[in-house]
Structure formats: C-alpha cells, structure tokens
Design a protein that fits this description.
binds NADP nicotinamide-adenine-dinucleotide phosphate, 9 strands, about 280 residues, 7-stranded parallel beta sheet
C-alpha cells in the first residue's frame, strides 16, 4: 500500500487534494493530512484520515509527521518571505524519512517569470531537484477564485480594474488543480516531471464581459495606471508596502507572466478545464 501525505491539509487546496485522493479510491488509512493546526482537520479525521501535526516553521514536528510516507505533497506555505527556509525544512525532513517522492505546488513559469512571488518557488524547485529525492513539480497558475471571490465587489462597483485588460492569464479553479495534482500523486510515472497547471487563458477585459453575460449586470473593464491602482488600494486602507506588492503582482500579470500555454492541466484532469463562465455561475449561485 502507498501512503500519501498532504501538507497544508487545512487550507483550500490541501483539503481538496485529500478529498480527491479519497474520491479516487485511496483508503483513508493510507492518507495522512499534515496540519499546522490539527484541530482544523477534525472533519478529515472523522473520515478516517490520519491527521498529524506538521509546522514548516517548527522542524521538530516534521520527522514524526513524515514517518512511513511514500508520496508527499508539499503545498507551498502562505507566509511570504519565510517560505524558503520552511520548504527547505520539509524537504530535509523528507530526505531523512526516506519519502519515496515529493510533489511541490510551485508557480506558473517558475523558471522564467518575473512575478514577485517566483523567487521563493524557483528556489524551492532548485532545492527539490538537488535533494536527490524523486520529485514532481506542479506549477500552479493563478486560481480563478482570485477573481470569482471578488464577484460581489465587481457587481457593486460595475468595474473590473486592471493595468492591461488584454494580458492573458492561465487561471484555473482550485478544484481542477486539486484533481490534476491528485492524478500526478497517484501516477509514479510523473516522477521527474514538471507540469504547468494553466487553464484556458482569460483576460481582465474578458472577465468583465463574462460577468456581464453571466449575471446580466453591466460590468466594464477600466484600465488604470500602476500609480492610480496604488492610490485606489491606499484609499481602501491598505498599507503602503502591501499596496506596492499587490501592484507589483498586477504589473507582472500585465506583462503576461501568467500567459502559459499547454495542455498539462487538461491531460492530468482527463477532461476540459472549468471555464470562467462556469466558475462565475457557481460563484453567483
Ligand atoms: N495560485 C494562486 O493563485 C495562489 C493564491 C494564493 C496562494 N497560493 C499558494 O498556494 C498555497 C495553497 O493555496 P490555498 O488556497 O490552499 O491557501 P490557504 O487556504 O491559505 O492554505 C494554506 C495552507 O498552508 C498552511 N500553512 C501555512 N503556513 C504553514 C506552516 N508554517 N506550516 C504548516 N502549514 C502551513 C495553512 O495552515 P493553517 O490552516 O494552519 O493556516 C493552510 O493549511 C498557498 O499556501 C500559497 O502558497 C496560490
């Protein structure tokens, strides 16, 4: 029997992967949910999944967490700027525990993108490649939820703001990514493979049009400069550093850093990816 462990199992993506492993017929006794906050995984424990504490920032928790694990999904951490030592601790612990394969959720085009989030992901990929462990890299593009979660705001303001309405973004739903990631976890032949998990490209101008179609409420795309966007974010009460970071992310999107083509996502999914229109319909239901 293969034992699968998933870090960040209390987060959106990790929980979806644990659930998908069970849905694909992996016995709950072969699934380990690793959680910084194990109490938040009570629902998974109730399904028979083993829940173990694992905090990337507390390496003492990791040896017991990874004991007898064959395939590990390392979901990238959420504490920006601290992730490299955290991911390194997990990879070191995986080596010590002789984990059979480590899969890592990276970022789109990690080898070439100038997205400000990329350096920690690229460095983690490098650590994994140098670790000697069999690995699978899953480069997640933007979640479609980054946009669909803002639907109430788009509808309230009648606007989608952006620096470049035509830049292509290979966004995909977390649910689709989780299914694709699970396929890669279950398939030993994905060892040594780097996948780009990008969906059919959307644009911000297209997002406004699709919201209008799906909700029957007029939403327009409005182009703003980086300076205007900074001022808008600052007016919402966002601090200067966070606003600068958000604008740097938007500039990266505007440059086309998330314009990644290819069919890796759909091949791992075994079906077409969820469309923006369907994701918006689900969000507005
Ligand atoms: N592609 C995108 O658009 C996009 C957007 C946002 C984030 N991300 C990246 O993708 C990852 C997964 O996304 P998500 O939506 O599932 O994020 P999420 O819901 O915020 O979940 C993050 C998970 O990481 C866990 N975590 C954070 N720091 C940890 C630590 N020090 N030790 C152990 N676990 C830790 C969290 O534990 P707790 O439950 O205890 O907090 C949580 O389970 C994020 O962490 C981030 O790296 C990607």
């Amino acid at each position: 029997m293969t034992t699968y462990a998933v870090t960040g199992a209390t987060g959106h993506l990790g929980r979806l992967v644990v659930t998908e492993l069970l849905a694909r017929g992996v016995s709950a006794s072969d699934v380990v949910a690793l959680a910084r906050t194990p109490d938040k995984a009570a629902d998974l424990a109730a399904r028979g999944v083993t829940v173990r504490p694992a905090d990337y920032a507390d390496p003492m928790t990791l040896p017991a967490a990874l004991e007898s694990v064959d395939v590990l999904l390392l979901v990238s951490g959420s504490e920006l700027g601290r992730r490299l030592p955290q991911h390194s601790a997990v990879i070191e612990a995986a080596k010590a525990a002789a984990v059979g394969r480590v899969a890592y959720t990276s970022i789109a085009a990690a080898d070439r993108s100038a997205n400000p989030l990329t350096p920690e992901h690229r460095a983690t990929e490098d650590l994994l490649r140098a670790s000697g462990l069999p690995f699978t890299i899953l480069r997640d593009n933007w979640y479609l939820e980054n946009y669909t979660a803002q639907l109430p705001q788009y509808l309230a303001t009648g606007e989608v703001l952006g620096i470049n309405g035509d830049a292509r973004i290979g966004a995909a739903t977390r649910a689709d990514m989780a299914v694709a990631i699970t396929t890669a976890l279950l398939d030993p032949d994905t060892a040594g493979v780097t996948f780009e998990l990008s969906g059919p490209p959307i644009t911000l101008a297209g997002l406004a049009e699709t919201i209008t179609e799906v909700t029957d409420t007029k939403v327009a795309y409005r182009r703003v400069t980086a300076e205007e966007l900074t001022a808008i974010l600052r007016r919402t009460g966002m601090d200067e550093a966070t606003a600068a970071f958000v604008v740097a992310l938007e500039e990266s999107v505007a440059r086309g850093d998330l314009d990644v083509r290819g069919d890796d996502l759909e091949r791992l999914l075994g079906r077409p990816a969820t469309t923006l229109a369907d994701a918006l319909r689900a969000a507005s239901a």
